[in-house]
Design goal:
The complex is a heterodimer of chains A (651) and B (521).
Chain A lengths: L31 H29 L3 H25 L1 H8 L6 E2 L9 E2 L4 H10 L2 H25 L7 H19 L11 H26 L1 H20 L8 H22 L42 H12 L63 H10 L8 H8 L3 H10 L13 H14 L6 H6 L8 H10 L27 E2 L37 E2 L21 H9 L24 H12 L33
Antiparallel strand pairs in A: 1-2, 3-4
Chain B lengths: L14 E3 L1 E3 L6 E3 L2 E2 L5 E2 L1 E3 L16 E2 L6 E4 L7 H5 L11 E2 L15 E2 L8 E5 L4 E5 L8 E6 L5 E6 L7 E7 L2 E10 L9 E4 L4 H4 L2 H7 L3 E2 L3 E6 L6 E5 L6 H10 L2 E2 L1 H9 L15 E6 L4 E7 L22 E9 L2 E8 L20 E6 L11 E5 L5 E7 L5 E7 L16 E6 L13 H9 L2 E2 L6 E14 L4 E12 L6 E7 L5 E6 L1
Parallel strand pairs in B: 18-21
Antiparallel strand pairs in B: 1-6, 2-3, 4-5, 7-8, 8-11, 9-10, 11-12, 13-14, 14-15, 15-16, 16-17, 19-20, 20-22, 22-23, 24-25, 25-26, 26-27, 28-29, 29-30, 31-32, 32-33, 32-34, 34-35
The chains are: A mainly alpha (651), B mainly beta (521).
Chain lengths: 651, 521
């Protein structure tokens, strides 16, 4: 039997005082979810037959225009199912269906790095539009065959696909982020330039998928239902009217449609009493499902990046970590602290091309990166050499040009301070019952990591404007954001909202790029900086040639405070950086590389546009509440000379 | 009864014992005690003779929801010394009784008053259950054939039920919370204007105390047909009482009616349905009912009528209804999983007219039912039958233990023939039904479709510590008892609950609406 009072279970039929609510989804009745699945299954079959046709055409006659038209049909079909394909098959999507057209290390290999060539829609897109006509069929046919093979398998695999309403909503909300941060930035349209038409199709599909829910919602939540309907239809209309990639107002679209839909879908899901992922699993994804804005300071779930976040003692850990951060007691000669290279006034950088080594004996190898928002990463250092924020300090402690010491020596020193012992005991109370003292290597690392993780700034003038909390943002910065996310394609590597290499919508992988940074700021006939970067980071699976000169994509946030720029500090100004990219990166200044990953030759920005991008980057400054320096450091009994050490170190 | 007894003193009696619970099995265990007067053992007779004078026909009474104080009720109204003497088989000391001469604490306002011996019967009598001694007869609540009552949360107001026809609905209000030795007594008059339905009676001296009936009649008070137990749903404030019924009450109250007393609205209405009036010998009220009284509005009416009604005396089992409620008597409250139920206990006044099936040998069977108080306008179909008791016995005194796990109930005066009731069921018994904290409360008061769904929704194991399995792929949601949803799983055969805090939850099948109680360990 099944109650016919779909879709709500009327709790009143239960003899209970409490109302037990829950969206009723019957697998045996037609529902918005089953409609979406049926449409998806039909589209998979359609896409396969469209590929058949294209293969046929390519074998029949040489007419690239016809091929491209047919390919665009395939693309459109894919965009109607992208939200479900990418949601149900994220690895397949990135690796085989619609990954970036760049060689990658096979993530399935665990021991020896194996480089695999890219396949899928983006590669076909690039080949169809950018290859010479004579070579198109030869390049594309094998790719089409591979794509078809994957889709045929997927179609069989998904003939009995079951998705709950929760999953439909999650897929749609993921897709909102995906279409805005990847699709509309041009990330996945290297050749065809179809980004805006793709986006239109995505929003039209979302309107269709959501229509069943919007109707049900209307029974009890009329206002929410109407708002959602208006925003869904409005987004499509706006996109239909504004199909120019270069002039599309992404900031207006964000405030008017994207954020309202991102929040509206969440509200609808909750109003319909559809469970959220947190009621289904204990797994904490990086995307905070309760976030309501793309630029919300809580969009990225802190606890998925750093373990200390889960501790109830977090404030005590941060307090302790901050003291340690400014305490030169950690370094061998007590001259250097973390703050020596990470000045709070410079958004925790040091203004040097490369940071000064201990004792002022030369420099270390690279430029000091900002620590603000550094937590939003899955790997650390310019060369991505460490995988945990907590492990990052290892390299500072042991490096002879930095702290030049050992944990043993540090712990020995700290244990001479009753004050430090008390602070560790307070921050790590669970150690008090165990043989291991609260002061130990891992608590030291946790405290420092907790402090670094506390350095977060998502409240810049840009953020406030983007969230609609303020209407006050420089017009040049607004234009700059639209260029950054559009014509200048910065956003295809510096992904919103952190503007780092953390890839949406999962925000779990940090990317590195090969852009050809020169040794010196020379604009013609430049020499490549010799630093091999990721290729030599010591991680076995990274030791492949595609990682030659590859460096982590850093955050653009607070960039106004973090000059000089690049891993070697080669550029002094934002204008220089924009110029570097505008002429095509390393390739544009005479550096020959076979693995540069910039998806363009030149951006063709005029000087006003370049200024606008710099203005936008200057609107990303937020160091609020992060710049205070401790007024004193813990004291050491019986070590009078230690107590004379300077807060933050000698320099 | 009232019996001569050299061991515990003449008159009626009362037994107290203390129980504890075995933490592993939830079994109740009667514990050994030594009382202040050096009596030791498990079961103790309450000493009435040396404290308040003898008692008679101790029946029902009051267990205070507020603080656990206990009163016993002397139900069987005595009107002559001879009737308590009973030819030497009853109370043998028939000398006039002077209040305060045997009561350690005395009774302010009544000490020193002398009454005829039988006039020292038919009161509410407070006892100390911990020391198994009586404290005082509650003279200022009046002399009536009391059966039940309830102490209200203010610890001042007491509602009192009287097992007689006519019975009057009485209210006592103490001057000071917790001190019931001074205060005013009122009688209910249903047909008075709202706000003036309680009429004060004289309870300040024995003249008043001994003339409650006459005062009530003079006041035009409302008459009932044998009010028995009284209880309260503390979550709503509503007071419930049983009115057990009498086959043909007309002759029992028409004299009082003539003298000024009034009939309750539901009797007038019921008699009218039978084409007659309450005073008529033809008026039948065989099964009784559960009444409600709302202290907030002074409204009183029928919550559940006994029945179904049969006009013919003989009702054979082929036409006998699945449930039949006759002569509700004992009445109390139990809270199961946050839901409040009345515990309704029968004490049959007769066997005819469907009170028991006529064609079944030894058919005098009383039953104990639960009734979900959240059901508006309940019928006898809403009753949940919990237990029947040995033949010939009444079931009464049922009470929920404070932890909600057990109902303790009394089986009184069964047929003593071991051929009818095998030993030990041919004796009066107190027994315990334990496990109410584990009962699935969701199968009650629901439509047939849902009842079937509940039956079909199988989960195992329960209690569960890690993996909870279902019989077929299901959409399920787990809720706290406060209604917060903590876990949802769709189209699954099992769900891992190991990360959910231990405790009691409700699991619901989102497709069928079926729900079950779930214990996570």
């Amino acid at each position: 039997m099944s109650s016919l009072r779909y879709p709500f279970v009327l709790a009143s039929v239960l003899a209970v005082l409490i109302t037990l609510s829950g969206f009723q989804q019957s697998s045996r009745h037609r529902s918005p979810a089953s409609d979406a699945i049926a449409s998806y299954q039909a589209s998979l079959l359609l896409m396969i037959s469209q590929i058949d046709s294209l293969e046929h055409q390519m074998k029949e006659d040489l007419n690239p225009e016809i091929w491209r038209n047919q390919f665009l049909r395939i693309r459109r079909t894919y965009k109607t199912i992208e939200y479900l394909v990418a949601y149900t098959q994220p690895e397949l999507t990135v690796q085989r269906l619609n990954g970036a057209p760049l060689p990658k290390v096979d993530p399935m290999e665990e021991n020896v790095p194996v480089v695999i060539n890219p396949v899928g829609i983006q590669v076909i897109d690039e080949a169809l539009y950018l290859e010479e006509e004579d070579h198109i069929a030869e390049a594309v046919l094998p790719l089409l065959a591979g794509l078809k093979r994957e889709l045929v398998q997927l179609e069989m695999f998904h003939r009995k696909l079951y998705l709950s309403d929760r999953q439909i909503f999650e897929a749609c909300r993921d897709e909102l982020i995906r279409v805005y941060t990847l699709g509309m930035t041009g990330f996945d349209t290297p050749g065809s330039g179809q980004a805006m038409e793709d986006a239109l199709i995505v929003f039209q599909q979302m309107e269709t998928t959501m229509s069943g829910y919007v109707a049900v919602l209307g029974n009890q939540h009329r206002n929410l239902s109407q708002t959602l309907q208006q925003k869904l239809a409005g987004a499509s209309l706006y996109l239909a009217d504004n199909q120019n990639f270069d002039t599309f107002d992404r900031l207006a679209f964000l405030r008017e449609y994207l954020d309202p839909l991102f929040a509206g879908l969440l509200d609808a899901q909750l109003a319909l009493d559809i469970e959220t992922m947190y009621e289904v699993s204990d797994y904490v994804p990086s995307l905070n499902y309760f976030a309501r804005n793309l630029f919300s300071d809580s969009l990225l779930q802190l606890s998925s990046y750093v373990g200390a976040e889960a501790s109830s003692q977090l404030p005590a850990m941060v307090k302790l970590g901050k003291l340690l951060f400014y305490d030169p007691i950690l370094s061998h000669d007590m001259s250097m602290s973390c703050a020596s290279c990470h000045h709070p006034g410079k958004a925790f950088t040091d203004g040097q091309r490369k940071s000064l080594a201990t004792g002022l004996q030369g420099t270390v190898d690279r430029n000091a990166p900002t620590l603000i928002n550094a937590v939003y990463s899955d790997r650390y250092f310019h060369d991505l050499r460490t995988f945990e924020l907590e492990m990052q300090i290892d390299h500072v402690v042991f490096e002879e040009r930095e702290f030049n010491t050992t944990y043993r020596a540090i712990l020995q020193r700290l244990s001479a301070s009753e004050e430090y012992l008390g602070l560790f005991a307070e921050a790590f109370p669970h150690y008090s019952n165990q043989e291991r003292p609260a002061l130990n290597t891992s608590t030291l690392k946790s405290a420092l990591a907790a402090y670094v993780a506390s350095l977060r700034g998502f409240n810049s003038p840009f953020d406030q404007y983007a969230r609609g909390e303020s209407n006050d943002l420089d017009e040049s910065a607004k234009r700059g954001y639209n260029l950054f996310m559009g014509k200048a394609v910065c956003g295809t590597c510096h992904f919103a909202p952190a503007f780092t290499g953390l890839v949406p919508p999962d925000y779990q992988d940090s990317e590195s790029e090969v852009i050809g940074v020169p040794e010196a700021p020379i604009w013609e006939g430049a020499t490549l900086d010799p630093d091999l970067g990721r290729r030599v980071n010591g991680v076995p699976l990274d030791a492949v040639d595609i990682h030659h000169h590859s460096f982590k994509t850093p955050t653009v946030r607070n960039i106004a405070l973090t000059a000089p720029y690049m891993h070697n500090g080669v550029y002094d100004s934002l204008e220089q950086i924009v110029r570097f990219y505008n002429i095509g990166g390393g390739a544009g200044i005479g550096i020959e590389m076979d693995n540069q990953t910039l998806p363009f030759d030149a951006l063709n920005l005029n000087s006003a546009e370049m200024q606008d991008i710099a203005s936008f980057m200057r609107s990303l400054t937020d160091t609020t509440g992060m710049t205070s320096v401790p007024s004193r450091l813990p004291s050491f009994e019986g070590h009078e000379e230690w107590n004379k050490r300077k807060i933050g170190g000698e320099y | 009864m009232i019996q001569a007894n050299d061991k515990i003193g003449d008159g009626g009696g009362m037994t107290v014992f203390r129980v504890t619970r075995d933490a592993d099995t939830d079994t109740l265990i009667v514990v050994n005690q030594t009382l202040a007067d050096n009596r030791s053992g498990k079961f103790f007779n309450v000493d009435f003779k040396n404290t308040v004078g003898e008692t008679g026909m101790n029946c029902g009474g009051i267990s205070s929801f507020v603080d656990g104080r206990i009163w016993t009720a002397e139900e069987w109204f005595r009107s002559s010394t001879a009737s308590i003497y009973d030819g030497g088989n009853g109370v043998r000391d028939t000398a006039a009784f002077t209040i305060g001469t045997t009561t350690p604490n005395g009774f302010p306002g009544f000490d020193g008053e002398t009454v005829r011996k039988f006039e020292n019967f038919n009161y509410m009598v407070e006892i100390d259950p911990k020391e198994a001694v009586a404290i005082r007869k509650q003279y200022n609540w009046g002399r009536q054939g009391f059966e039940g009552g309830v102490i209200m949360p203010d610890n001042k107001t007491v509602y009192l039920g009287v097992d007689a026809t006519p019975a009057f609905w009485l209210k006592f209000v103490a001057n000071t919370a917790g001190d019931f030795t001074t205060g005013n007594l009122y009688v209910y008059k249903q047909n008075a204007a709202a706000g003036s339905r309680w009429i004060q009676l004289n309870n300040s001296d024995m003249t008043g105390v001994l003339s409650i009936d006459a005062q009530a009649v003079n006041a035009g008070a409302t008459m009932f047909n044998r009010i028995e137990w009284v209880t309260q749903d503390t979550t709503t404030g509503i007071v419930y009482m049983t009115e057990t019924g009498r086959d043909n009450p007309g002759s029992a109250w028409r004299g009082e009616k003539a003298d000024g007393a009034t009939h309750a609205q539901h009797h007038i209405f019921r008699a009218a349905q039978q084409g007659t009036g309450p005073d008529s010998s033809a008026y039948a009220d065989r099964y009784g009912r559960v009444l409600y009284y709302d202290p907030a509005t002074d409204e009183l009416g029928v919550h559940l009528n006994g029945g179904p009604e049969f006009n013919q005396a003989t009702v054979n089992s082929d036409v006998y209804p699945e449930k039949h409620l006759s002569n509700p008597d004992g009445l109390s409250i139990i809270n199961i999983g946050g839901q409040v139920y009345l515990i309704i206990q029968e004490d049959l006044n007769g066997r005819s007219h469907g009170r028991v099936p006529s064609d079944v040998t030894n058919n005098s069977t009383c039953e104990l039912f639960l009734l979900d108080l959240s059901i508006a306008n309940p019928s006898t179909d809403d009753l949940i039958r919990v237990t029947a008791v040995p033949l010939g016995a009444e079931v009464t005194g049922a009470i929920s233990t404070p932890d909600g796990k057990t109902i303790l109930l009394n089986v009184q005066h069964p047929n003593s023939d071991p051929a009818v009731n095998p030993f030990p069921f041919n004796n009066s018994l107190t027994y315990a039904i334990t496990g109410w904290d584990k009962v699935d409360v969701f199968t009650t008061g629901v439509d047939q479709e849902l009842a079937e769904a509940n039956e079909a929704f199988k989960i195992f194991p329960n209690p569960v510590s890690r993996i909870l399995n279902f019989e077929q792929p299901s959409d399920v949601a787990i809720y706290t008892l406060a209604g917060q949803r903590v876990r949802v799983a769709r189209q699954v055969l099992s769900v891992d609950v190991s990360s959910i805090a231990a405790g009691v939850y409700v699991i619901k099948n989102l497709e069928t609406g079926a729900a079950r109680r779930l214990v996570i360990e």
